[in-house]
Design a protein that fits this description.
The protein is an alpha+beta fold and about 325 residues long. Among the domains are: about 25-145, PH-domain like (Roll), CATH 2.30.29; about 150-230 and about 255-265, Phosphatidylinositol 3-kinase Catalytic Subunit, Chain A, domain 1 (Ubiquitin-like (UB roll)), CATH 3.10.20. It contains 6 helices and 14 strands. The strands form 4 sheets. It has a 7-stranded antiparallel beta sheet with strand order 4-3-2-1-7-6-5, with helices on both faces. A 3-stranded antiparallel beta sheet has the order 11-10-12. It has a two-stranded antiparallel sheet with strand order 8-9. Strand 3 and strand 4 form a beta hairpin. It starts with a helix and ends in an 11-residue tail after the last helix. The model is unreliable at about 5-20, about 235-250 and about 270-310 (pLDDT under 50). It comes from Opisthocomus hoazin (Hoatzin). This is Rho GTPase-activating protein 20. InterPro entries: ARHGAP20_PH, ARHGAP20_RA, PH-like_dom_sf, RA_dom, Ubiquitin-like_domsf. One of its GO terms (molecular function) is GTPase activator activity.
């Protein structure tokens, strides 16, 4: 099997070098050279459009045995690094309509994601899309097999409205999706319901505000990305955190490296609200809750829009006192 795999790998590399994806040998690029090491091999590169929300970015992907590098082309041989993701922390899906606005060709597109990011990868042809999807899924699967540990504790602190707070710690594997985690949480909490009625949110010290998961993401990979980032400087991006035990697998990380999980009911006829105790940290929401998960990109231009100087007086909504429009201390339905 190893000889057959090696032959397929060499054949495909030769195919790439002939110029299918790049007019030059990608190994000659300084960016590729900077990521090469004794335990990492270059596999594939190609042009792609990455779409999030209404935004479309022209990017170049470089796939290694354990890493995906996203870059912006500056010339035919020079690229600017935009981000990199460990393959063991990545996922693919096909819910393109939930990630970007407008129509996308399903024959040439699929959802590509890693911690804090979901985007639609749009390729030049159906063949190129199938090649990338096949290689990514294969490499993600193989890297997950190397994961250590295979499962981690995922703590959910819940509050039932009007009663005291309680929490549950779930054992989550590296192949459990967000929807799987929601179902496990509902069972452990003794709540009858469907995963369609709830959203799992991530509260990351890297971000200004919580953001919801669609359902196909891997909470294991999201949390492990925070744990791996807590490793000493100089560690390889793909290094397994075997030395990270005890407090690193709980929430005793520095503030900027913490990763909590929030389970929210999205059904309007339910009154149960599950969420961690956020009294120790406040989040300033800068964007609409709608499509929040799909604005996970490098662009920050929307974050810097100044507030209107003609905002209503504090404590009022459309010129009315909050006490006049909130019945029994409940916000109006349009706000909810």
């Amino acid at each position: 099997r190893q000889s057959v795999d090696s032959l397929c790998f060499i054949t495909f590399i030769s195919f790439c070098r002939e110029g299918c994806f790049s007019p030059i040998s990608p190994e000659a690029c300084p960016l590729v050279q900077s990521f090469m090491c004794h335990n990492r091999t270059f596999i594939l590169d190609g042009h792609v459009q990455l779409k999030t929300g209404l935004q479309t970015q022209e990017r170049h992907l470089f796939l290694f045995t354990d890493l995906l590098v996203v870059a912006k082309s500056k010339s035919h041989s020079h690229f600017k690094l935009k981000c990199q993701a460990r393959l063991c922390e990545m996922w693919t899906a096909f819910c393109t309509e939930e990630v970007c606005e407008g129509s996308t060709d399903p024959e040439r597109s699929f959802v590509l994601g890693w911690p804090t990011t979901n985007c639609v990868a749009n390729f030049r042809s159906a063949e190129q899309k199938e090649t990338w999807l096949s290689f990514l899924q294969s490499r993600i699967r193989e890297e997950k097999e190397k994961d250590y540990p295979k499962s981690i504790p995922l703590k959910i602190i819940a509050k039932d409205v009007g009663t005291c707070a309680y929490s549950k710690t779930l054992s989550v594997t590296n192949v459990n999706t967000a929807n799987d985690v929601i179902l496990m949480a509902l069972q452990q909490l003794g709540i009858n319901g469907s995963e369609k009625d709830y959203k799992l949110w991530v509260i990351s010290g890297r971000e200004d505000a919580p953001y919801p998961l669609i359902g196909h993401e891997y909470p294991f990979g999201i949390k492990m990305s925070h744990i791996r980032d807590a490793m000493p400087h100089g560690s390889k991006p793909c290094a397994c955190p075997r030395q990270l035990q005890g407090s690193f697998l709980t929430e005793q990380l520095p503030q900027e490296l913490q990763c909590l999980n929030e389970l929210k009911c999205i059904s309007s006829n339910k009154h149960l609200s599950l969420f961690p105790d956020l009294s120790q940290k406040s989040f300033k929401r800068k964007r609409s809750i709608i499509n929040w998960a799909f604005w996970r990109g490098p662009g920050t231009h929307l974050d810097n829009v100044p507030l209107s100087s003609t905002s209503a007086a504090p404590g009022k909504l459309f010129g009315l006192l909050l006490t006049a429009i909130c019945e029994d201390d409940n916000l109006p339905k349009p706000l909810l």
